[in-house]
Amino acid sequence: MAAKFVRETLPKLAASQVAVSRGLLAAGLLFGLWLIGKCFYNCFLHPLRKVPGPFLAKFTSKWLEYKDHSGVRTATLHEMHKKYGPVVRIAPNEVLFSNPAVIKKIYGFNSSYMKTAFYSGFEESGRPVLFTLRDKTIHRDRRKLMAHAFTHSTISAAEPLVAEQVRNLIGRVARQNGAAMNVYAWFRSLTLDIVSSLFIGKAIGALDQDKPHEYMNNIDAYFQLAGLKWQLPWLLPLTWWIPLPSWQHFQGAQHRVYDYGRAAFNEYIERYGRDSGRNDPLKKIIHGDKDLPPLSDEQICCEVGSVLVAGTDTTATVLTYTTWELAVNSDIQSQLREELKTAKVNPGPSGVPRYSEIESLPLLDGIVLEGLRLHGPAVASLPRQVPAGGDMIDAYFIPGETTVSMQAYTVHRNENIFPDADTFKPERWADGGTQQMREASLQWSKGTRMCPGLHLATMELKIVLASLVLGWTINLGERMEEDTMDMVDHFVLMPKGNFCDLVFEPLKS
């Protein structure tokens, strides 16, 4: 009986295995043919086939994702422009530009190019905020509802809140007694305390701690998660269940960022109500615009969480690199000190000058603009989607739905517009710089998507730099090496060494 079963079953199993093998072989052949056809199309028939670029970019974006994870995407693409010119195909359906003449087409006020799905990676559970909104009409209305919070007059009224946190920083510097301090860490603490003071009604207290605040770790993980959600969207849903506490904690970073915003907003309402007498931007967001329905509390909470992230590392990075430039270029530091003294800027007992005394000083203005040019907060490319029907960009026809972008890092190093572009030269901005320079400046982006926080960031940069230069001589710390400040970027810029040690020697009275 058993022998008969074996005799009858084995041939059937063998036939079944042959059928499976043939099926797999056929599937493999079909996939191979499809892959060959796809490669042939991308190389010889694709509308972007004539756009220069690295060979791998014709077939995949994975080479670029590797560079992104390594923190060298921006530097790599800058080298691609040097090799291939102002128009570079960096993925099968993505093209990078560096000619300032196309800025208005891609990013200008009248541009029809929308943000891509890339920005969704910065959302929590699909809840869009001003930064991530793609629909132009919805974005326009949201920006109008929030614009009052970021105007020059609103930020000027909040100056005492900014000055209070700068005084805390000055106290930290004084207590160092000339010992080196990692300004990258302390400037991050400063900007977090400033933005939280303005947008949630109280400073988080990062400057009061001797080690980085836990919220900083959440911000770091926030940007890493955004990259993973864009490049490997399948990874996080598939690995959420992995019972590793560190992995679970990492994946929850974006939730913690926005949950903090919710808790802080609710506490603000409890403490001050919806018609507080505080001169802070959050009150403006709560009131919204008379011509539009106000934001819901949930929308405000999400926006607050987003602002806390956006207002921390961006300004802190520019402040770190610009202060480092003053330490490296002691002659410029001395000139700034002389400008402040000539203008009779008086920091008073607090050590913090009034913004009205320094806002229009030409050298200080040039130093800030040059810091933003060389070390802007968002050096990476800002992707946009070509509208249906396609468009001509810099002599190339680009099909609809193609991703296009420019990166400030490269545009700001155009030698035809910024001679000696890699050198820190604040004097190039005398009288506000040339029209070409202003039109090529992408540090805040352009058009309706321009960073709304530019007035706050500029105030912070100028007040902090003036306060430090009036009180101390700034020098490099012993740990600083030639490559310590080399750029690493994960959408925002940071020093390769993850620190910037500077020494502040008190000026003699």
Describe this structure in words.
Its cofactor is heme. It comes from Cladophialophora psammophila CBS 110553. Belongs to the cytochrome P450 family. Keywords: Heme, Iron, Membrane, Metal-binding, Monooxygenase, Oxidoreductase, Transmembrane, Transmembrane helix. With 509 residues, the protein is α+β, with helices and mostly antiparallel strands. It has two domains: 103 residues, no CATH class; 349 residues, Cytochrome p450 (Orthogonal Bundle), CATH 1.10.630. It is 52% helix and 9% strand. The protein has 21 helices and twelve strands. Strands 1-2-8-5-3 form a five-stranded mixed β-sheet. Strands 4-12-9 form a three-stranded antiparallel β-sheet. The longest helix has 44 residues. The mean pLDDT is 91.
